Amino acid sequence: MRIKGKNFDGEGGEEEEQKLVVGYALTLKKKKSFLQPEFERLACKKGILFVAIDVNLPLSDQGPFDIILHKLLGKEWGDIVEDYRQTHPEVTVIDPPYAIQHLHNRQSMLQDVVDLNLSDFHGRVGVPKQMVIMKDPLSIPDEVAKAGLKLPLVAKTLVVDGSAKSHELFLACDWSSLSELEPPLVLQEFVNHDGILFKIYIVGDAIKVVRRFSLSNVNQCQLAKVPGIFPFPRVSSAAASADDADLDPRVAELPPRPLLERLSKELRHRLGLRLFNIDMIREHGTRDIFYVIDINYFPGYGKMPDYEVIFTDFLLTFKKKKYRAISCED
Ligand SMILES: Nc1ncnc2c1ncn2[C@@H]1O[C@H](COP(=O)(O)OP(=O)(O)OP(=O)(O)O)[C@@H](O)[C@H]1O
Ligand SMILES: O=P(O)(O)O[C@H]1[C@H](OP(=O)(O)O)[C@@H](OP(=O)(O)O)[C@@H](O)[C@@H](O)[C@@H]1OP(=O)(O)O
Ligand SMILES: [Mg+2]
Ligand SMILES: [Mg+2]
Known about the structure:
Blueprint: E1 2-3, E2 6-8, E3 15-17, E4 20-26, H1 28-34, H2 37-45, E5 48-52, E6 67-71, H3 75-87, E7 92-94, H4 97-101, H5 108-116, E8 124-126, E9 130-133, H6 140-147, E10 153-157, E11 170-172, E12 185-189, E13 196-203, E14 206-213, H7 220-225, E15 229-231, H8 249-252, H9 257-271, E16 275-282, E17 289-297, H10 307-329
The protein binds adenosine-5'-triphosphate (ATP), Myo inositol 3,4,5,6 tetrakisphosphate (4MY) and magnesium ion (2 copies).
């Protein structure tokens, strides 16, 4: 029997701390990078128990869970989680599938940053000029010229579904090569940012920012010499952090904390998500002009410093809320 966070065995009256049961549905790769032994040990010490969800069995037959964490591909899984969320309001599902879906499209993922129009608040945050191409590769050069986008352009798949293909990026350096690209895609102006990217990890109310290596600046001269379309290396997702690199302090300087706090808070509310990260770059030659280029759901938290403590604390906030609710009913 569960009473006010304690378990009573009903016989000798002995009390045992009630566990917070977290069901998780993650890929094997994610499980390995997220559920590291040190994290599980700390969580266990704090009364959190992780239980794997079997996706081949009905979700309602499993548990009972206090919290569900999930990141799996496909609409079918999204529908299962949404249905469970509706029928089990007592369980905290992190996060709602429809809100996650918003990040699966590279156009809609950045729309809230545009709407937010954060300026004159310790800096300015926008998104690079971009456009969507749905079909007809031959028309791309004309469409791009009409939209007024400047070369070089980063070509990204429109849909982000976690597949390797959805992370294939290209740098397009001349007009005629643009028609070699494969729609549907997003074309985004390449913003010079001195090779450093800021990854802003959000876990509920907590924010952690790290530096990562990114692509070097491209100048007009290089552009004229190297026409064509070049595959992009996924430099910034490498575990190697740029936090200890010997960098120009103007480049290394982290975005102002109040700016990050405001941006994160707004995006948390607007997106309706608690677990995501934001890829942000500072425009070359400026101190306070930033661009958000990517937002990822349930990113690689295993690479976030102190993630064990931050995540454990985050999960425990739900325990407090839950037992507060029970106490109020008494
Ligand atoms: N508009 C841009 N201007 C300059 N560099 C960019 C731009 N867009 C992307 N990049 C570079 O390319 C990398 C990958 O781009 P992006 O983050 O959009 O792709 P992704 O596949 O979603 O990556 P992730 O692994 O973070 O999910 C960025 O981390 C950055 O280094
Ligand atoms: O592979 P990692 O663990 O590093 O995590 C990456 C994560 O892959 P995973 O969910 O399969 O783990 C990616 O998710 P999908 O877009 O592919 O869904 C995306 O969120 C990246 O941005 C994460 O890297 P980070 O931004 O943290 O550097
Ligand atoms: Mg990214
Ligand atoms: Mg991404």
